[in-house]
UniProtKB/TrEMBL annotation:
It comes from Parablautia muri. Gene3D superfamilies: DnaJ domain. GO terms for biological process: DNA replication. InterPro entries: DnaJ_domain (IPR001623), J_dom_sf (IPR036869). It comes from the Bacteria. Keywords: DNA replication. The lineage of its organism: Bacteria, Bacillati, Bacillota, Clostridia, Lachnospirales. This is J domain-containing protein. Residues 9-46 form the J domain.
Length: 72
């Protein structure tokens, strides 16, 4: 990733995304359409990965919960 660094949560991703858009948005003096498009592409890729990781974690937790209920 070129623009996002050390993103481990959705909150971190959203915070960095807002900061990057403030800096690179085409309406700003030093902004760039290409940079904004690349930021958006990286954001979508990271968002998808973080959501998948979150959903996997929930499934694992639910499976462990089911196993605990079955064992009782």
């Amino acid at each position: 990733m070129k623009y996002f660094k050390d993103v481990n949560t959705l909150e971190e991703l959203r915070r960095q995304y807002k900061q990057l858009l403030k800096k690179y948005h085409p309406d700003n003096a030093n902004g760039s359409t290409k940079a904004t498009q690349k930021i958006n592409a990286e954001y979508e890729q990271l968002l998808k990965g973080l959501k998948n990781r979150h959903e996997t974690t929930i499934i694992i937790i639910e499976q462990k919960h089911i196993n605990i209920i079955v064992k009782k």
